Amino acid sequence: MENTTSPKSALISQAFKQYHQMIIGYINRRINNIDDAEDMSQDVFLRLMEYKDILCEETIKNFIFTIAQNRVIDYIRRINKKIEIYSYIYDFQPSVTTYTPEQEASAHDLLMIENHCMRKLPPQRCKIYYMSRIEEKSTDEIAKELHLSRRTVESHQFMARREVRENLRRII
Hints:
Layout: H1 7-31, H2 34-50, H3 60-92, H4 101-119, H5 123-134, H6 139-146, H7 150-171
């Protein structure tokens, strides 16, 4: 039987062997989720096959990393969109009580990401963020319960929201 592997297919196969683990690490460092990084790395090489007619050995590594970077950007955009939707639902639609399975999955994903970011906060700030965001306590209630001034609580809330956003950007 004759070998029908084209030189371009062999180039992609060699690139997969050489760069696959690097791509997983590259993506995982940006999104901090190994399972998604592994899936996205597979997508990178599938996408690479769409361009096999224009590939050359000298530029394939850069091309692979460019595709990976674009996949990360798409992932971040998708997560940010979920966060926006969740924030809208959380902030403006508290009376909504029935959700589709997709909405519940998205809300669960967002809560997981938010909890991960919240755990990175200093203890006092984390507690104030939790009381405000999760327990839905007012600034005055938090100040009274923690024996802090209202201004201190407001300051912690502001810094916590900023830090959670920054952590989200690093994760995503």
